[in-house]
């Protein structure tokens, strides 16, 4: 019920999201909900979430309370931090970890998000998969439209935020669960 995109190009990264939220089957726009930004900043990292709406508050609070123990700089540090964060979310925030898929080898926190920071762009899945992305990626119900749009313009555009904007606009045009306005943030790679 969302679209998130991250883009890496020319020593810059951009992260963007739509602002439509599904609250108990009701599609709510940014005109109604004051906290419609699906991206938040912690330290030098931007986090964009997809999934249950309470995931954002839970993740933000966990980072505020326990962030000094965590590092989101690079794939290995992110993975180690996710192991700690999983335990924190279970113990302090009652994160549901039962698996509906019996073939899944580990507990799932059911929180999926993207991270953009000076060390790169990353996809995070609930089972603590950390994928470092070299060009662009998208998550959420509008992802397939965003990926197609970004693929078609990535070589032609130099600004990662322009590429991200094309992805968000395509998803909002063709996925009825995505909606404008969009939010976006950028930073330089180190």
Explain the overall architecture.
With 190 residues, the protein is an alpha+beta fold. It has one domain (4-188): Glutamine Phosphoribosylpyrophosphate, subunit 1, domain 1, CATH 3.60.20.10. It is built from 4 helices and 11 strands. The longest helix has 19 residues, at 75-93. 42% of the residues are buried.
Features:
Glutamine Phosphoribosylpyrophosphate, subunit 1, domain 1; 28% strand; 190 residues; four-stranded antiparallel beta sheet; alpha+beta
Give the CATH architecture.
Answer: 4-Layer Sandwich
Level-1 CATH class name: Alpha Beta
Number of helices: 4
Arithmetic mean of pLDDT? 91
The named CATH superfamily: Aminohydrolase, N-terminal nucleophile (Ntn) domain
| Number of extended strands | 11
Q: Could you state the order of secondary-structure elements as H and E?
A: EEEEEEHHEEEEHHE
- Report the sheet with the most strands, covering strand number, pairing sense and barrel closure: 5 strands, antiparallel
- Note the gap between the termini: 33 Å
Helix content: 25-40%
Main β-sheet, spatial strand arrangement: 5-6-7-8-9
Instruction: Tell me the radius of gyration.
Output: 16 Å
**General form:** globular
- Tally of discrete structural domains: 1
Under CATH, the topology can be stated as Glutamine Phosphoribosylpyrophosphate, subunit 1, domain 1
Structural class: alpha+beta
């Amino acid at each position: 019920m969302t679209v998130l995109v991250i883009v890496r190009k020319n020593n810059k990264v951009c992260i963007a999201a739509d602002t439509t939220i599904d609250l108990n089957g009701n599609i709510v726009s940014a005109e109604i909900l004051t906290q419609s930004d699906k991206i938040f900043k912690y330290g030098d990292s931007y986090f964009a979430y997809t999934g249950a709406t309470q995931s954002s508050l839970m993740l933000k609070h966990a980072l505020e309370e326990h962030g000094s123990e965590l590092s989101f700089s690079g794939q290995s540090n992110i993975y180690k931090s996710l192991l700690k964060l999983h335990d924190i979310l279970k113990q302090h925030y009652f994160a549901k970890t039962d698996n509906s898929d019996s073939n899944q080898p580990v507990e799932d926190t059911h929180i999926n998000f993207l991270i953009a920071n000076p060390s790169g762009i990353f996809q995070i899945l609930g089972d603590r998969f950390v994928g470092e992305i070299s060009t662009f990626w998208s998550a959420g119900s509008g992802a397939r439209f965003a990926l197609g749009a970004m693929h078609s313009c990535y070589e032609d555009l130099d600004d990662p935020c322009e590429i991200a904007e094309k992805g968000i606009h395509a998803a909002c045009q063709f996925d009825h669960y995505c909606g404008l306005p969009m939010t976006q943030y950028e930073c330089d790679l180190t």
